[in-house]
Amino acid sequence: ALRFAPEGDGPLQPLLWLHGGPMCQLSFDYNPLLSWLASCGYLVLAPNFSGSTGNGLGFMNRVMADGCGVADLSDCLACAEYLKTEARKVEPRLDTSRGVAVAGHSWGGYLASMCLLQHVGGESVFSCGVSMAGIADWYVQQRHTEVRYYDYALMGGWVYEKEVAARAREASPITRAAELRAPILVLHGDKDIDVPFQQVPPFVEALRRSTHGGAAVEYHAYPGEGHGIAGTEAQADVLDRLRTFLRVNLKPWDFTDNPHGEVAAY
After folding, report:
1. Which of 22, 209, 214 is nearest to 111 (CA)?
2. What is the CA 263 to chain-centroid distance, rounded?
């Protein structure tokens, strides 16, 4: 995993950032988004989870068929445990008083949704999260995507096949959406055809059916935007929503900055 942290002495809240793909990798290149998030006062941990490239075919193929949304999710949960229990030995500035956040785009957005629906002892494993352009329903995904060959390989078959249907249901965030127990921010372009937008409104509706006291849903669709947000104004809006959401839900509150998201006059 790669670690992004700013200079200085201030406390850093932990953010697990999940890359897209899944068959790609984060390497030692300049990453403006993760560097910016670190500059906002976060310790950003960016793992190359199961399914990533760079560690051999066996590692990459862990997310095929029965491993889809299972092997990669397991690695993400292990990262959360590390941040909660071991990371302070390496980074003494780490502040986990409000838990661990998770976020990602595309496959990372899908995994972020899956992560946010995991709970132990009645409490969410992650304290908040952001899902951008993430898969929510494998049935809609495989039917409407322009990369159907890829999703066929990941699912190990067609979602209408008996042996695949149960797997697709288990690997779909919408299946457990009503079990949400933490704040989530969902962002998606309404012209996305890689991760078709049709699955997003029903997913958001299902999330909002959660009755858990910790659940909260923020959602914004970007008209005319595809899988990657390309418009300058839309990009600025994504960054603003991301910064505000994390500031409100992950950083400790004070008397001038939180919880409203704007700096107060006093």
Report:
1. 22
2. 27
22 upstream amide cis, omega within 30 of 0: yes
pTM tops 0.90: yes
Amino acid identity, residue 1? A
Q: Can you say whether the dihedral through the CA atoms of 58, 61, 66, 69 is positive or negative?
A: positive
- pLDDT tens digits along 115-145: 999 999 889 999 999 999 999 999 999 999 9
- Write out the two tokens for 11: 């406390």
List C-alpha distances in Å: 218 to 10, 66, 159, 175: 28, 31, 29, 19
pLDDT in tens, 171-230: 999 999 999 999 999 999 999 999 999 999 999 999 999 999 999 999 999 999 999 999
Nearby residues of 165 by Cβ (< 8 Å), 6 or more positions away: 159
Both structure tokens of 120: 């132990």
